[in-house]
Structures are given as C-alpha cells and as structure tokens.
Write a structure and sequence with these properties.
The chain is α/β, with parallel strands linked by helices. The protein has helices spanning 7-18, 35-40, 46-50, 52-56, 67-75; strands at 5-6, 22-24, 29-32, 63-65, 108-112, 123-126, 129-136, 142-148, 154-160, 171-172, 176-180, 183-184. The radius of gyration is 16 Å and the shape is globular.
Length: 189
C-alpha cells in the first residue's frame, strides 16, 4: 500500500466536504442523500434505525458521512459527485482497506499524544471517534475537520483543546494523532 494522496490534497478534500451540506449517517462515506441511499442506510446500524425519521427527511443536496468514513471516503476518491452512488468514492479502492475507528491507528505512523508537533492532514483519535488535523486558524488555534452528530450534525470544524480553545467553534480533546500510511506528509518529501 503506497501513498495515494498528498497531505494538502487530503485536507483540501476535507474542506470540500466541510463546505458541502452534510448529515451524519453511520457507515456512509460521502453518498448523496438520495431516496435510494436513505433506504440503503436505514437498517445497517442501530444508530441509523433510531434516527431514520431524521435521515429520511434530509434534502438531496446533502451528503451522508460518519467520522471514519469521511477519511476513508476521501481516500477512496470522493469528489462531491451527486450523480454517483457514493459521491465518486469507490469502496475499498486505491489499496485503502475498510477499517474502523478503533483500528485506524494501526494504519498510522508516528502516533503520539504530544499535540505540539502535528502535521497537516494527520488523523486525530479518541475512543470511538476520529478527525483530520487541518492546521491553525486565524486565531492561532489548531483545528480539526470531523463528522459528528454533535453540535451541527455533519462535517464541521472543531478546535483542538489539546493545544488551545476556540471561541468560534466547538472544541474537542483528542487522545492521539498520527500520519496515515496512505498520505504523503511534508516531512516525508
């Protein structure tokens, strides 16, 4: 499994997902909110069954994601294409396996709990949840892009409490961060 994407491109795609209307649906990796996809995700998890009424009412202008699938969907080629079942992502493509939140760090190098030394595009981890480090904001705070049912219920910014507190966005404390083996980071060039 080689490097398939540069860190800047990975982060740019996360920003595109951020700026595209979205909604949290477990197991979804960037699929448009079509009637077919609403039915497809109706019964795949307990969370989706419980929230199906809300999921079924989502406008077709949105894309469905969950936290780990945001990362996998981008690596699998998501391109915000509303005409394709998964927004352009192809399940399991580019040599990137289907992995869950709890085993994501197995696909990372330089895993650390020192948040003073992160590189753009690193994965952020806490038990049951992941995000993407996207750099410092104009306020000097480190930020993540993550997909969560918390706060705005979709792909969103959050401040990384490990290195400061945002007054503009929700904040989250992470346990670890690491470099995905599929992404080429600046320090590796």
């Amino acid at each position: 499994m080689g490097k398939i994407m540069k860190a800047n491109d990975f982060v740019n795609m996360a920003h595109i997902a951020l700026n595209t209307p979205s909604y949290y649906v477990q197991g979804a990796f960037g699929c448009p909110a079509t009637a077919e996809n609403k039915i497809r995700y109706h019964s795949n998890t307990t969370y989706n069954k419980t929230h199906y009424e809300q999921i079924s009412k989502r406008p077709q202008t949105e894309f469905f994601w969950d936290c780990v699938c945001l990362i996998k969907g981008i690596l699998w080629g998501w391109s915000a294409d509303r005409t394709r079942k998964n927004g352009g992502a192809i399940y399991g493509s580019s040599g990137v396996p289907d992995f869950g939140t709890e085993n994501m760090l197995k696909y990372c190098t330089d895993v650390s709990s020192d948040f003073s030394k992160m590189e753009l595009g690193e994965v952020l981890y806490m038990k049951g949840h992941v995000g993407i480090y996207v750099g410092k904001g104009p306020d000097g705070i480190d930020y993540a892009i993550e997909c969560t049912p918390s706060w705005k219920n979709g792909v969103q910014f959050s401040g990384i409490l490990n290195s400061g507190k945002s007054t503009y966005h929700p904040n989250r404390k992470w346990l670890k961060h690491g470099k995905l083996q599929f992404v080429e980071y600046e320090s590796e060039v």
